[in-house]
Design a protein that fits this description.
The chain is α/β, with parallel strands linked by helices. The chain has 13 helices and eleven strands. Strand 8 and strand 9 form a beta hairpin. The structure holds pyridoxal-5'-phosphate (PLP).
Length: 349
């Protein structure tokens, strides 16, 4: 039923990928005059005059140890955003193919589709923010290449039912991408262990949220070796810089510290839920499996502007489908949350 070769764009199936100097020679040598680098060095002390490892093997090994996934099943992108965009470029013929999203959800699936001139079909979530499987099935046709599922979902903060996702994985012959950017804050299990079960599964994770490295730009895709090979074929040769690789390696040694932060953020989230719940202007706080809350308030725009005047910026999602009246609030530090609550207590219509 699932045929990766058939799913690929013709031009990508036939593509001869760029072969870099670092690809063609990987052994031991003393003199490297094969890549037109600056042989004298650089203004920086390190070996930044050299091109980085195009396959980031050391970083992948470190991720492999933490996640229990072999390095050949890992692709690294310049943020998840690159992992998203490359799937469009490899699988979707502009002006012909389509993809399905389940809004309200992360905006980049749609923006990236538009950049690539790919049609976006929308199976809006049900009122409980779960998949509308009937609508989804009706939207699929022979040109549907990708289905995007974000779990925990941004901006609704909930996890998507595992059984529903399994139904999509078992029945859709294209790629199912599960974006797990917030999985570390969730009570639910990742799909990362199911790669051998589903040849059409791509799991996205990122260093931007739980790992606290949004500035580094490092996204991860986990999939079958065949899908990772496609990623490697279409990626820019040196998409992850030497600096990023070095810093990521250092960070990956600190799993313990990251786990402590995750525990703290979850505790801060639960405290914030209790505190917000006591404010008269708060109508509803949706359950959260992430490091943010979707909060329905009286006069969302008014509250948003009131907070801005106090120098506090939250995300106004009140114009987004199913999110009328809602603000999306990231869990801050204890002090930041206290400032938020103080400002909200001072709000009057
Ligand atoms: C924040 C976020 C990401 C992270 O994107 P990066 O490019 O890795 O920073 C991915 N997906 C979702 C749903 C997000 O909210």
């Amino acid at each position: 039923m699932f045929n990766l070769d058939k799913l690929l764009r013709d031009n990508i199936r036939q593509l001869t990928p760029y072969s870099s100097a670092r690809d063609e020679f990987t052994g031991e040598a003393r003199v490297f005059i094969d890549a037109n680098e600056n042989s004298l060095g650089s203004p920086l002390t390190k070996w930044y005059n050299r091109y980085p490892d195009p396959h980031q093997w050391k970083v992948k090994e470190a991720i492999s140890k933490i996640k229990g996934i072999p390095p050949q099943h890992i692709f690294l992108g310049n943020g998840s955003d690159e992992c998203i965009d490359l799937l469009y470029r490899a699988f979707c013929v502009p002006g012909k193919d389509n993809v399905i999203i389940n809004p309200p959800t992360y905006g980049m699936y749609e923006v990236s589709a538009h950049i690539n001139d790919v049609e976006v079909r929308r199976a809006t979530l049900l009122d409980d923010f779960q998949l509308d499987l009937v609508h989804l099935e009706n939207l699929v046709d022979a040109n549907t290449k990708l289905i995007w599922i974000c779990s925990p979902n941004n901006p609704t903060a909930n996890s998507i039912d595992r059984q529903d996702i399994e139904i999509v994985l078992n029945n859709f012959p294209g790629l199912v991408i599960i974006d797990e950017a917030y999985i570390n804050f969730s009570r639910h299990k990742s799909f990362i262990q199911e790669l051998s079960e589903y040849p059409n599964l791509v799991v996205l994770q990122t260093m931007s949220k739980a790992w606290g490295l949004a500035g580094l730009r490092l996204g991860m895709a986990f999939a079958s070796e065949a899908i990772i090979d496609v990623y490697n074929k279409v990626k820019p040769p040196y998409n992850i810089s030497q600096a990023t690789q070095e810093l990521a390696l250092k960070a990956l040694e600190e799993v313990g510290q990251v786990n402590d932060m995750i525990r703290s953020l979850v505790a801060l989230r639960e405290q914030l839920i209790r505190d917000l719940g006591e404010l008269p202007l708060v109508r509803h706080i949706y359950p959260s499996d992430a490091n943010f809350l979707l909060v329905k308030v009286d006069d969302a725009r008014g509250v948003y502007e009131h907070l801005l005047r106090a120098g506090i910026v939250v995300r106004d999602r009140s114009k987004v489908e199913l999110c009328a009246g809602c603000l999306r609030i990231t869990v801050g530090t204890e002090k930041e949350n206290a400032e938020l609550l103080k400002s909200l207590r001072g709000w009057q219509v």
